[in-house]
Design goal:
Elements lengths: L1 E6 L2 E4 L4 E9 L4 E9 L6 E7 L4 E3 L7 E6 L4 E6 L8 E11 L2 E6 L3 E6 L1
């Protein structure tokens, strides 16, 4: 089992910055990929950015050049630095971790943190 706890959300004006944190605990050694998704009411949850144990990263087109994902393996924490925020970035941001156990893919989710960007 993996537990994920997000922090760092809040209200910011357009053009501002926020940094989200996701602290992982439990069987963190099994995590293959960890990252961030977001969701607004009435829409599907969408990928924002992920990073793998090998160090590769994957970003949604709408955040490229503005958001940066990073991880501190010593602290079992992944960060999402969000710059040049836009009102359309307003959403609940969820941390996600994927692990593999005997060939079975397991998805873990945090409780979410609200990010609100005012115009």
């Amino acid at each position: 089992q993996v537990q994920l706890v997000e922090s760092g959300g809040g209200v910011v004006q357009a053009g501002g910055s926020l940094r989200l944190s996701c602290a992982a605990s439990g069987s963190t050694y099994r995590i293959n990929t960890i990252g961030w998704y977001r969701q607004v009411p009435g829409k599907q949850r969408e990928l924002v950015a992920t990073t793998s144990t090998g160090g590769s990263t994957n970003y949604a087109d709408f955040v490229k050049g503005r958001f940066t994902i990073s991880r501190d393996n010593g602290k079992n924490t992944v960060y999402l630095q969000m710059n040049s925020l836009k009102p359309e970035d307003t959403a609940v941001y969820y941390c996600n971790a994927v692990s593999w156990n005997w060939g079975t893919k397991l998805d873990y989710w945090g409780q979410g943190t609200q990010v609100t960007v005012s115009s």
